[in-house]
Amino acid sequence: MPDSLEVAKDTIEQFQKIQRHMLIAGKENATETYESLKEDYLSLKAILNVAGVNLTDIDRIKE
Predict the structure, then answer these.
(1) 26-53: per-residue pLDDT in tens?
(2) pTM, rounded to two decimals
């Protein structure tokens, strides 16, 4: 069973990946793709907030 540090690391990596895809979708004006990714972004952001992760430096979307 993974420990909390491994879970946090995995979630942060997923969060960063989603943000990269959102930034690309925004540049390409792919609004449907962006909105779909935003759902995952908000879920991951909520999990990280509950886990006490400071998102100040890693949240590039700022929504």
Answers:
(1) 999 999 999 999 999 999 999 999 989 9
(2) 0.88
Nearest partner of 36 among 22, 55, 47, 17, judged by Cα: 22
Token pair belonging to 1:
């069973």
Token pair of 39 as six digits:
């759902």
Distance between CA atoms of residues 1 and 29, nearest Å: 41
Q: How many angstroms separate the Cα of 48 from the Cα of each of 25, 35, 60?
A: 23, 20, 14
Please, are residues 13 and 29 in contact by the beta-carbon 8 Å criterion? no
pLDDT tens-place string over residues 11-26: 999 999 999 999 999 9
